[in-house]
């Protein structure tokens, strides 16, 4: 039995073990509960204190962060304002530069416009001056042409009068002379006309009768002229034809053109000229100088009064083309040189080709001989190698030969060698 004293009345109670255990449990549970409540209250106070400390710490940290952010924001604002100020200054500088460029462009534009205006004005003035000059030139040309036409008309009238007089003279001459004498007189007339001017206009010219009749025919006169280097300037074969009114068979100029062209070619003359009084009434031949090159190359038919003019005309044309003839002769000589060079080159190529072909064949034969020699040497090499191999095998067999092997299975030879030893 256990005794329990009441703390209030001091009375003693006796309780058994089970009751005592139950009371003890109750006491303990009550103490534990009180202790727990104390601990929970203390924990709540500590928790509340910790929360307050944490809140204070967080608040302080946040305040520090806010202060730092404020500082950073202030710095960023300062940097932004500085950068913005720099950009604004840069943009303002660029704007000022663009304004300056625009002003320069405007100035250049004004200068260009002024220059263009001045240029156009100058061109206008030049055109006006040119127009005035052209008008003056036109007037001068008109005056010159009028004067030239007037002179030409006067010349034409003079020529017509001369032709009429010449026709009358010729008709009168025909009545007096025979056919042969008419032809001879025309030749004499032309020769006389030429000799009148030979000393002044034709000092270096050759004008003589064509007396070479080897080919069966000949012309009447040959005119040749060369320069100081001996290059021919011009050459003309002349034929003179005349006919009396009383001649039964009337000849035409065309009847003599073929033979004249043949004579010109045989005597190697450049031009051919028929001086003719045939077909007196023909307006075609009475114009003076008739070009019949459409039938025969470089051939003309003229009346006697145009004998000297046709020489002068052809001679002046030849003089103008002399430079081209010299250049043509130079080109021809160069072509000949090139031809000779090409012929020599071709001969060299042919000779080289022959020598190369011969050398190639000899080289091929030598190569074939070398190949044959190489084959023979290969055979000899193989034979020597085979011989060396056989000698090696024989040497190996010799080195492998011993008395023991020789006397093996031969008691007689074995006894003799043992006796020798």
Q: What does the model show?
A:
With 421 residues, the protein is of the alpha/beta class. The protein has helices spanning 17-176, 179-201, 254-266, 307-320, 322-400, 403-407, 411-420; strands at residues 2-5, 12-15, 205-209, 221-226, 232-241, 271-276, 289-291, 299-302. The protein is 72% helix and 10% strand. The strands form two sheets. A six-stranded mixed sheet has the order 3-4-5-6-8-7, with helices on both faces. A two-stranded antiparallel ribbon has the order 1-2. A hairpin with a 6-residue loop joins strand 1 (2-5) and strand 2 (12-15).
Summarize the structure.
The protein is α/β, with parallel strands linked by helices. It contains seven helices and eight strands, in the order E-E-H-H-E-E-E-H-E-E-E-H-H-H-H.
Strand order of the largest sheet: 3-4-5-6-8-7
User: In percent terms, what proportion of residues is strand?
Assistant: 5-15%
Shape category: flat
Mean pLDDT: 76
Largest pleated sheet: 6 strands, mixed
Low-confidence stretches: 175-181
DSSP strand count: 8
Structural class: alpha/beta
Number of helices: 7
- End-to-end span in angstroms? 133 Å
Order of helices and strands: EEHHEEEHEEEHHHH
């Amino acid at each position: 039995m256990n005794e329990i004293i009441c703390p209030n009345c001091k009375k003693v109670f006796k309780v058994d073990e089970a009751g005592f255990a139950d009371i003890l449990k109750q006491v303990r549970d009550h103490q534990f509960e009180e202790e727990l409540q104390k601990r929970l209250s203390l924990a709540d106070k500590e928790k509340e204190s910790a929360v307050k400390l944490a809140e204070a710490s967080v608040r302080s940290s946040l305040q520090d962060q806010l202060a730092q952010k404020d500082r950073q924001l202030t710095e960023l604002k300062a940097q932004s304002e500085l950068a913005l100020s720099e950009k604004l200054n840069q943009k303002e500088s660029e704007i000022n530069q663009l304004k300056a460029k625009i002003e320069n462009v405007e100035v250049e534009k004004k200068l260009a416009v002024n220059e263009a205006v001045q240029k156009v004005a100058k061109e206008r003035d030049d055109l006006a001056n040119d127009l005035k000059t052209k008008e003056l030139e036109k007037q001068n040309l008109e005056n010159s042409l009028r004067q030239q036409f007037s002179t030409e008309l006067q010349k034409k009238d003079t020529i017509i009068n001369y032709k009429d007089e010449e026709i009358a003279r010729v008709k009168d001459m025909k009545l007096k002379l025979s056919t042969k004498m008419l032809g001879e007189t025309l030749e004499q007339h032309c020769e006389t006309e030429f000799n009148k001017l030979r000393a002044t206009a034709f000092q270096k010219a050759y004008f003589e009768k064509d007396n070479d009749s080897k080919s069966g025919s000949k012309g009447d006169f040959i005119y040749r002229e060369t320069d100081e280097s001996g290059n021919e300037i011009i050459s003309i074969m002349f034929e003179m034809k005349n006919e009396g009114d009383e001649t039964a068979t009337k000849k035409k100029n065309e009847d003599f053109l073929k033979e004249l062209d043949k004579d010109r070619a045989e005597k190697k003359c450049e031009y051919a000229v028929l001086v003719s009084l045939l077909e007196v009434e023909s307006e075609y031949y009475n114009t003076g100088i008739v070009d019949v090159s459409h039938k025969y190359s470089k051939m003309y038919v003229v009346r006697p009064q145009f004998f000297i003019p046709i020489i002068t005309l052809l001679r002046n044309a030849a003089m103008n083309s002399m430079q081209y003839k010299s250049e043509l002769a130079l080109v021809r000589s160069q072509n000949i040189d090139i031809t000779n060079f090409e012929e020599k080159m071709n001969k060299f190529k042919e000779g080289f080709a022959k020598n190369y072909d011969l050398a190639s064949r000899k080289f091929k034969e030598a190569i074939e001989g070398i190949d044959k020699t190489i084959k023979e040497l290969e055979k000899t090499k193989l034979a020597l190698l085979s011989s060396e191999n056989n000698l090696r095998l024989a040497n190996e067999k010799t080195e492998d030969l011993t008395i023991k092997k020789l006397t093996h299975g031969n008691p007689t030879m074995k006894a003799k060698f043992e006796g020798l030893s």
